[in-house]
Structure formats: structure tokens, C-alpha cells
Amino acid sequence: MLSSYDASLTRLLKDEGGYTDHPSDPGGPTNFGITLIDARRYWKGNATADDVRTMPQSVARKIYRERYWNAMRCDELPAGVDYAVFDYGVNSGIGRAGKVLRRVLEMPDTASTITNEVIAAAAGCNASDLVAAICTERLAFLQGLKIFPVFGRGWTARVNGVRAAATAMAQGRALVTMTSSETSAGKAVVPVKNPAGPASAGAVIAAGTAAAAVTSRFEVAALVIAAALAASVAVFLIWRWRHRRQQEAAVTGHSERTSNGLG
Fold first, then answer.
1. What is the pLDDT of residue 187?
2. Nearest to 209 by CA among 192, 191, 184
3. What is the per-residue pLDDT for 256?
4. What is the mean pLDDT of the chain?
5. Among the three residues 173, 206, 239, which one is the final residue of a domain in this structure?
6. Residues contacting residue 146 through CB under 8 Å, at least 6 positions apart
7. How do strand 187-189 and strand 204-206 relate by DSSP bridges?
8. What is the model's pLDDT at position 202?
């Protein structure tokens, strides 16, 4: 099958962003979406926060290829489905992603391994429909989390972006280049219940914190602009009032001078 790996990884890296160490993130220091835990597991056994911060992107790419894409056999999945499963696996664990793929294929989800039977079932389905089903389940899972009101905007944007791109891949359409407004500079963390698979602990969902931060900046900017406009209007009204008073005074003075024979 035609692999979407390069396009999928490019989009994922843009979504994940660079180095972060958010206090609410149980994964701790993270770079390119790779947590300190994964860095120690797949790169350096004694990796430190500084190692993660200075980690070459090539290391992250290698981890994503071997521990996520290959682990979920994405090269054997239909184009588009591979990206939807890959992004889900990176963010919520390959165990959850595998179970969801099985579930939408109407197969038992007591296991998460993507077997030959799973590959065959996916090949026999409409890829666009599978993408939609995976993303719908993914968003429903996020909406059920208690912290969705905090990070929901970013999560929703992430899932919708994956849905659109994966559908384009499934239909053989050209992908729209991601703009800076569509990418995140960081990530938010989703605690995964009943973690399964090596990537489940400290699972990552990108864009939540970044989206909230961007929203806050926009709100502050809007308030500043509104205040500036209000001040400008106030200055104009005061100037116009004073100008009218001066005109009225001038007319009154002229009238008095005229009545006194001075005009």
C-alpha cells in the first residue's frame, strides 16, 4: 500500500512543537513530542531534561518510525488510515490506538495488537470511512475527560486537522500546507485510564495548552485595541466639546462687542 509516512511525520512534528516542560504534564520535559520517559526507554537510559532539550530531531524521527509507525504496522494500513492511527498512537498510546482500530473494524478489542487479520479487514473497508470513525471515537474519548473544558479547543482542532488531512490522503488528494495558526508550540497531557502498550504512560495530546495561550493573547490584544479605540473616541469627544465651547464663546463675545459698538 502507498505509505503516508513522510507527510504524516511532517504534520505530527509541526503539531508537537519543540521543547516544553509544562507543570501539568506527567511526561515532564518533552521535545518534538518525545517525553523524558521515552527518551530514556528508546534513546539514553540516563537521559536528563537537558538531554531532551538538546535532543536532535533525527532521534525523535527514529523513535517515531520504529516505536510508533512500525510498531502499529502503519506501512500496511491504507493511506490516511495510517496517519489517523499513527497520530492517535503518539498522543494516546499505541495500545489505545490499536484497540480503537479493532473496534471500528468491528473486531474484538480485548487486544490491541494490529495483526494480519486487522490489516486485511482495514484493506477491505473504505479508507475515508475508517478515518472518520477513528477520529470520531478519538474526539468522543477526549470530550469525556474532566479536563476537556480546559484543553478541549486545542484537542478538537488537532483531531479535526488529522481528520481532514487523513481523508485527503485516503482519497489521493493533495494535502494543504499547514500554516503557523494550525500548528501548536507545545502540548497538553491527557491521563490515560488503563494504559496499554509502551507509549501509554504520560500520553500526549498536542495543541491544548498552546491553543489556550494563543486564545489568551488574542483576548488581551482585543482588550488593548478596544481600550485604545475608546480612549481615542473620548479624546475626540472632549476636543469637539471644547471646540464648540470656544466657538460659542467667540460668537457670544462678538455679539457683545457688536451690541456695545465695539464690533
1. 47
2. 184
3. 44
4. 77
5. 206
6. none
7. antiparallel
8. 37
* Inside any domain, residue 74: yes
A 10 A CB-CB count for 177 gives 9
Domain that holds residue 238: 219-263
Looking at residue 23, which CATH number applies to its domain?
Answer: 1.20.141.10
Amino acid of residue 60: A
Rounded-to-5 percentages of helix, strand, coil across the chain: 65, 5, 35
Judge whether 44 and 51 are in contact, CB under 8 Å. Answer: yes
Residue 248 falls inside a structural domain: yes
C-alpha atoms less than 13 angstroms from C-alpha of 133 in its C-beta half-sphere = 17
Question: Which residues, other chains included, contact 133 with Cβ-Cβ below 8 Å and sequence gap of 6+?
Answer: 104
The pLDDT assigned to 115 comes to 96
Contact 117, 103 (CB under 8 A): no
Alpha carbon separation from 251 to 33, 67, 244, 257 (Å, rounded) = 74, 86, 10, 10
Query: How many structural domains are present in the chain?
Result: 2
Helices (H), ranges, 17-74: 36-42, 49-53, 57-63
- Residue ranges in the chain whose pLDDT is less than 50: 180-224, 251-252, 254-263
pLDDT at site 200: 27
